[in-house]
Amino acid sequence: MDLIDLLILCSVLVFLLLWRRFWFHTGGGPNNLPPGPPGWPLVGNLFQVILQRRPFIFVVRDLRAKYGPIFTMQMGQRTLVIVTSSELIHEALVHRGPTFASRPPDSPIRLVFSVGKCAMNSAEYGPLWRTLRRNFVTEVTSPTRIKQCSWIRQWALENHMKRFKREALENGSVEVLNNCRLTMCSILICICLGARISEDRIKNIERILKEVALMTTLKLPDFLPVLAPLFSRQMREAKELRKKQMECLVPLIRNRRAFIEKGENPNSEMVSPVGAAYIDSLFDLKPPSRGPLGEQEFVTLCSEVINAGTDTSATIIEWALLHLVQNQEIQDKLYREIAGCVGKGLVKEEDVEKMPYLGAIVKETLRRHPPSHFLLSHAAVKDTELGGYTIPMGVNVELYTAWVTEDPDIWKDPGDFRPERFLEGDGVDVDVTGTRGVKMVPFGAGRRICPAWSLGILHVNLMIARMVHAFKWLPDPESPPDPTETFAFTVVMKNPLKAVILPRS
């Protein structure tokens, strides 16, 4: 922001301060919104939050203690209804799922990358969303397709284990997150585009898609569009980044199309049979009211799958490994379960279904370290009621699900990492989809639940089982494990986990 932009912004702030006698109040009144903190005119609570200079989740926790399980914040021109209780989240997402199944309006920068909300995550509830989701479930996460693509995971995990061995030999320790992200990204690129490409190209795609994820996080103009002209540089940067995104994925998409239509396969990079890649189903897809999709939509839809699956799965694995490194007893118990199931053989996909302790570790990791503290923003399709208050159509309904996993009324000793709770205790029969009740919802619930959640669990279970079966994981004395959190699209460790690995005999 240059000097003149700064002067304009300061002038706006001075103007707003002159109007402080017109305080904004939420709650009660003719609109019957949930209660909430009083705000400044025009900007509401926006600058009050910014001036606190601390993560938004801590602001939400304080407001929850004061205003209860549902409250309103006026963030500039956006009205946010924050929902934090298990009962109200379940009511909104499950009992009244169709009513709360839409999305609020997107910012101009997000629309650049979603091509006008033509994506499963951002599409409004309606025919376009139904078509995209139904196609994805059929072509990617159906049992038949998952089984058909098992060779992709086999290939990627062979490279994964070789890379760990090489890195341990060269450096004395391994970095968990980067290796897991690279492996997950390679799997998802192959599932989406049918291509097996070099690690350098995978890393380039991963880097660009990470930049896209960070570029589309909420920024000041999203709350105050009137200030958008002061942030024109951000829009220019977004368009440049979109160009890079197109440049790295369109060649693969065109090569896939040539492979399907003409049998062409330069460098033999197309390895999935015709019809087995996600992109194959998109070439002829014609969503209602939109018509045939083009390269812009292809890039958006494939990027959505690669980005979401890479970050969430890799982050869960890193948090799980942190606890296995810190608690050797849990790790030894898991190893005994794996070895008892497969002996010295290779862990296969069907094997992980027979490992209840592995499943308990992954569930406890999801409870203690959900990929995000909030679900993606929801919106009501019409004016409706929740918790005795009116929820206007289109406002941001923000579901703070991390509180549910920390609630001592739901979980005994919620701060402890104890996988056994899912075998005998308060976690037995917990439904991670939230259908039967909300005790943890790492993938959302109801109509907008992550459509690939079962595939993600398979990837996480399989990778952890392979890694623990092959190596004993120990703390790196030069870089001790640090559980401090930070936000980078998902909730990750501030200092990435490094570990010493010893081959199992």
UniProtKB/TrEMBL annotation:
Cofactor dependence: heme
One Pfam family matching this protein: p450
Domain of life: Eukaryota
Membrane-spanning segments: none
Record keywords, A-Z: Heme, Iron, Metal-binding, Monooxygenase, Oxidoreductase
GO molecular function: heme binding; iron ion binding; monooxygenase activity; oxidoreductase activity, acting on paired donors, with incorporation or reduction of molecular oxygen
Binding-site positions, heme: C450
Family as reported in the entry's similarity comment: Belongs to the cytochrome P450 family.
PANTHER family: CYTOCHROME P450 77A4, CYTOCHROME P450 98A9
Name this protein carries in UniProt: Cytochrome P450
Lineage, highest ranks first: Eukaryota, Viridiplantae, Streptophyta, Embryophyta, Tracheophyta
